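Researcher: Good morning. I'm working through a list of sequences from a screen, and I'd like to move beyond sequence-only analysis. For each chain I'm collecting a predicted structure so we can compare shapes side by side. This is the next one on the list. No need for commentary yet; just the structure.
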Amino acid sequence: MFLYAEIESYLKNLGEDIMKECYPIKSLLEQKVNLCFSTDAPATSWAVPSDPFVCIKGAVTRKAYDNTDCGDDQIIDMKTAIILYTKKSAQIAGFKNLGQLKTGYKANFITLDRDIFAINPQDVDKVKVNKTYISGKCVFAR
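Model: Good morning. Structure tokens for this chain:
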């Protein structure tokens, strides 16, 4: 979220070359570093700091909101980004039986207005949640 939303600060304080080295997710994953994604809300002044889709867009495009190149050698694929937001986040936070849809796990999940694996990565920030389920019960419907 920070690199995506606050690119001006990164460029001003670090410069373009060092900015592109920030958050080297692909390299960290290749080195088997145990990491996950989160929005870090409300630690940013971005309009909707809890929106995971802009964070995912930043990871799968390595572009800031203004299209600044943030180091395309660190792009990761959509599947990896989703796993880092779900399964890995639950594991690292120590939550039991969360982060996956599988037998014995709590049925917490969302449905989206489009197939996030089939869209252009540039459009990830346009994805909307249609429904949210907690323990298998719908708690939000658009």
